[in-house]
């Protein structure tokens, strides 16, 4: 597509970014999620330092990402073999045509 310039506000700081048009929405949503997490942390803890709040945000998102990395989202359970079986059956059927 194309690259556009946008400004993202995170923790009361503005960051000018260049992003692909297709990624703009996800970048804006990520910034919104970060700001909401900072707001929640501020309300639940007596932490006011932006650096500490950002560090806690990073820890949350990194932990979530690592949990997802270690999790098999779709267990195979023989799906690959079944697909290969179907592929062979289709090849055999098409060969008869």
Your description of this structure?
The chain has one domain. The protein is elongated, with a radius of gyration of 23 Å. 61% of the residues lie in helices and 16% in strands. The protein has helices at residues 24-44, 50-69, 79-96; strands at residues 3-10, 13-20. It has a two-stranded antiparallel ribbon.
Features:
97 residues; alpha+beta; 3 helices; Cell_div_ZapA-like_sf
Gyration radius (Cα, Å) is 23 Å
Oligomer: single chain
Unreliable spans are none
Mean pLDDT reading = 89
What is the terminal-to-terminal distance? 42 Å
How much of the sequence lies in strands comes to 15-25%
Sheet bearing the most strands, described? Answer: 2 strands, antiparallel
Q: In total, how many beta strands?
A: 2
Indicate the overall shape.
Answer: elongated
Tell me roughly what share of residues is in helical segments.
Answer: 55-70%
Secondary-structure element pattern, one letter each? EEHHH
Query: In which order are the strands of the major sheet placed?
Result: 1-2
Count of DSSP H/I helices: 3
User: How many structural domains?
Assistant: 1
Helix/strand/pairing category: alpha+beta
